[in-house]
Specification:
This is IS30 family transposase. 41% of the residues lie in helices and 8% in strands. By secondary structure, the protein is an alpha/beta fold.
Length: 437
């Protein structure tokens, strides 16, 4: 004799079979034997999900036994009343407690109960979803999420980083679960507190034809070189602009792609000479050996500050230099992701004149101390010593920030930054940009 199945949820197919057998007037014992399920489980399933059908009260007795003496006698009040007392058909008192197989159901004036497989399955799925969506945290865990975790996210604007910091205390919070609970509004942290709550605009399709002669250094050449040299170290180079004005300063950014490590320098003006001077200074600090190692591949955009290829090749003679298509910043998406972190502290639309190199070194240190999912839970500082020694990092004024001290909101650079933002952006623009002042 086969052993009966236990502790297995009913499926829609199983429920349909139960409904069919009830319609055929089969007993619960016969159904349980066919399904190899415990008789009590079949009975509980039917009783839990049966649906009541009330007969019309027109020219017939009301289904509620209390109706005569009840003060509430509205039309079909029995459908909503919680104190209803129903006179059941004698056949419903005994198993299977439903009318599916009854021969008199067409003419019966009693309240009828039916088992419907589809309705039963929908009710089960909805109750399962509701049960799964409940918070199952201890008071301590809930307190940690609504206080310590929230503060970390508001400061560093990264759920991934904040979870690593919190989980180091012995917790085991899952990032996918946290995102769902924030979406449902179950935590103190709101969706609007997250850095990417705004909808991404659709990319504008632009002409990708080159306007300058950079044969052998195009994005197609870059892809070919990467294919032939998959282990080559790649660095990306770009600038971050402020408001448009004459001789406006910009931030010059360099990223070692494999470890997401970024360097940020201030240029007094956005031109090729400023870039060349800063690269020469960087070469003096890093030394030829490190320069050759991290600049094996150099990918940058087609901007005026980078287009003097001869100057770049003179400073970086061993680098394979390539250019993205015009208006195609997504082709160097790695450095653009770090730019997004910069913009969390210094948003678009403000002047960059008030920021010093010391400010940028501090910002750079915090960005490079942020844990990244793409680095398997490490931060760029954890991996940079394979490329740049600690002594050289000290010369660049960069240092690892304690993981619970990482801040990537405007307050990182003090009142100067907050006042600068308020000077150039109104309240509505600040709210739309999701800036936390």
């Amino acid at each position: 004799m086969k052993k009966k199945v236990t502790n297995v949820h009913f499926t829609l197919e199983t429920r349909k079979l139960i409904e069919e057998r009830l319609n055929e007037s089969k007993t619960i014992t016969e159904i349980s034997n066919e399904l190899q399920r415990d008789r009590s489980n079949i009975g509980k399933e039917i009783m839990k999900h049966r649906i009541a059908t009330f007969p019309s009260t027109f020219n017939y007795d009301h289904p509620c036994l209390k109706h005569v003496n009840c003060s509430m006698k509205t039309y079909e009040c029995y459908k909503t009343c919680k104190n209803i007392e129903i006179k059941l058909c004698e056949n419903l008192i005994s198993s299977p407690h439903v009318c599916n197989g009854c021969q008199k159901k067409k003419y019966c004036r009693h309240v009828r109960y039916y088992y419907n497989a589809v309705e039963a399955n929908n009710e089960y799925v909805n109750s399962w979803k509701k049960d799964r969506s409940k918070l199952r945290y201890t008071p301590l865990e809930l307190d940690i999420l609504n206080n310590d975790f929230k503060v970390l996210v508001l400061n560093c604007k990264s759920i991934y980083h904040a979870l690593i910091v919190i989980n180091k205390r012995g917790f085991n919070f899952k990032i996918s679960t946290i995102y769902k609970q924030i979406e449902r509004g179950q935590l103190a942290l709101k969706k609007s507190d997250l850095p990417r709550c705004r909808k991404t605009k659709q990319k504008e399709v632009r002409d990708k034809s080159y306007k300058r002669d950079i044969d052998g250094h195009t994005y197609e050449d870059y892809n070919s070189y990467k294919e032939e040299n998959p282990n080559a170290v790649e660095t990306q180079m770009d600038t971050v602009e402020g408001i448009k004005e004459n001789d406006a300063p910009v931030f010059f950014t360099i990223e070692i792609v494999d470890i997401k490590f970024i360097l940020i320098f201030k240029l007094t003006s956005q031109n090729a000479k400023e870039v060349s001077n800063k690269l020469k200074l960087l070469k003096q600090i890093l030394g030829n050996e490190i320069i050759e190692k991290i600049f094996e591949i150099l990918l940058t955009d087609n901007g005026k500050e980078f287009i003097r290829l001869d100057d770049l090749q003179e400073i970086l003679p061993n680098a394979n230099i390539f250019y993205c298509h015009p208006y195609s910043s997504y082709e160097k998406g790695n450095i653009e992701n770090n730019h997004e972190l910069i913009r969390r502290v210094i948003p678009k639309g403000v002047s960059l004149k008030c920021y010093t190199q010391k400010d940028l070194d501090l910002l750079c240190s915090h960005i490079n101390s942020l844990y990244r999912e793409s680095l398997d839970g490490k931060c760029p500082f954890d991996l940079v010593e394979n490329y740049i020694s600690k002594n050289v990092l000290d010369k660049l004024n960069l240092k690892r920030i304690d993981d619970d001290k990482v801040v990537l909101v405007p307050k990182l650079l003090g009142e100067k930054n907050i006042n600068n933002i308020k000077k150039y952006l109104d309240k509505k623009e600040i709210e739309e940009a999701n800036i936390t002042l």
